[in-house]
Design a protein that fits this description.
6 helices; globular; single chain; mainly beta
Length: 429
């Protein structure tokens, strides 16, 4: 018996292509091959061109794996379905290709963006890269949201702005103990009273850079009104330079992906309970096709105890999209999305520490998701955050400067194993 060993060595994965793009889930398949490997094989390259282990993983823009497969070489395929056999939603997906030849030791990894078309339901609103604080805490904003970013996370959290810029109970106690009674005004003492009708406006902006080549942005404004809080905002996801490939695997140009949701939200407080809802207009552009739609989100936050808070959010209730371009493979009808249910609980201690745990269920998938997050105020002007969402780690830092809050967060990317970066800021007028 003769034993031999080969040294592992990387190869140039620039020849890997995916076609066709865009494709229609459920109508045909997506193929993956390596043109460089095929060329080397045609030239009689000794031993290394025939890869015998090709693994393909398909991810959503949020980093959730929807399907995977192992193939004994190229071409590898994907039928446009998830693990449960359901057609994936139209939009953008990231295909990660891991190739290896166990005989020669050649190996390499590459990610390729693809566009799926067909019948959009506006599920891009599930992204969750909004507000550094909330991303850092594991994206459990249904219970922790308390500023203008509540427009996206849970509109019931907008009511917390009615008490903004007023001292907390702990701060009042600390000032009293230090004899600084003159620093405590009437507004501080009636923090939880609905009789305080101050007009204020909070403005926010948030942006993220995702490692696979996409970005998101959120802009919003919340206005404190006598009977509640009104919010107006927009959430956008964009990725350009997606290769357009025909059915023969020939590149014919580039395509862009753009998705935008415009929000009008309102939150009202009913004692220890807050209620909120959002109405949103949706626009999604997949290559040369685009869709229009609308939807609603509703939520509530309840203080069961002064230190114990729960939040419930129903996202994409009645949401749907309609194709504005008539094309073969696209059903010219209004398609409704499946809602997502979110439930969270937060413990807010008087020692500058908050712990939040939440779970969510997308009604179009069988599995449940979860997140755990914590916040610690290391001093009056700075807080640190840490979180875990479905085993994906995140952390961040927030600085409080007068009426400004500036946050930074990073979260591990499950596709590239790098880090996504999120920055956000709010200001109160």
């Amino acid at each position: 018996m003769v034993l031999s060993a080969t040294a592992a060595r990387a190869y140039n994965t620039g020849g890997i292509i995916v076609w066709p793009v865009p494709f229609y889930p459920g109508s045909g398949i997506v193929q993956v091959t390596d043109l460089q490997a095929l060329a080397l094989e045609a030239m009689g390259y000794p031993g290394g061109a025939l890869f015998n282990k090709v693994k393909v993983k398909v991810y959503t823009p949020e980093g959730e794996e929807v399907n995977s497969g192992m193939f004994p070489g190229y071409p590898a395929i994907w039928n446009g379905r998830d693990r449960g056999g359901n057609r994936v939603e139209p939009g953008m997906y990231i295909i990660k290709v891991e190739s290896e030849d166990v005989r020669s030791g050649l190996h390499g990894t590459r990610t390729v963006k693809v566009l799926a078309n067909g019948r959009s339901r506006g599920t891009f609103t599930r992204g969750g890269f909004v507000g550094g604080k909330y991303v850092a805490m594991g994206r459990n904003g249904e219970v922790t949201a308390d500023d203008v970013y509540s427009i996206y996370w849970n509109p019931a959290g907008l009511t917390e702005l009615r008490h903004a810029q007023i001292l907390t109970e702990k701060e009042i106690k600390e000032k009293a103990e230090k004899g600084r009674v003159d620093d405590i005004n009437e507004a501080d003492l009636i923090r939880f009273s609905e009789e305080e009708k101050r007009f204020s406006v909070q403005v926010a902006a948030s942006g993220s850079m995702l490692t696979y080549g996409a970005s998101t942005a959120f802009f919003g404004m919340a206005i404190n009104l006598p009977a509640g809080v009104l919010g107006i905002g927009s959430y956008t996801m964009f990725s350009g330079g997606v290769g357009r490939m025909d059915y023969n695997g020939v590149r014919t140009g580039t395509l862009d992906y753009l998705a935008t949701a415009g929000y009008i939200s309102y939150g009202v407080s009913l004692g220890v309970t807050s209620l909120g809802f959002s109405v949103k207009a949706l626009y999604e552009k997949i290559g040369n096709d685009y869709y229009l739609g609308c939807g609603t989100d509703i939520g509530t936050q309840v203080y069961l105890l002064p230190f114990l808070k729960i939040g419930l959010m129903v996202q994409d209730l009645g949401t749907g999209m309609y194709p504005m371009v008539k094309r073969a493979g696209i059903d010219q009808s209004y398609a409704f999305a499946y809602p997502t249910l979110k439930l969270g609980i937060a413990v807010i201690t008087n020692r500058n520490f908050t712990l939040a745990v939440s779970g969510y269920k997308k009604l179009d998938v069988k599995t449940f998701g979860y997140s755990v997050g914590a916040q610690y105020d290391i001093m009056k002007w700075a807080s640190i955050h840490i979180g875990l969402k479905d085993l994906v780690f995140s952390a961040g830092l927030t600085f409080h400067v007068v009426r400004f809050d500036v946050s930074y967060a990073f979260t591990m990317d499950t596709v590239t194993k790098g880090f996504n970066h999120i920055a956000s800021a709010t200001v109160m007028f």
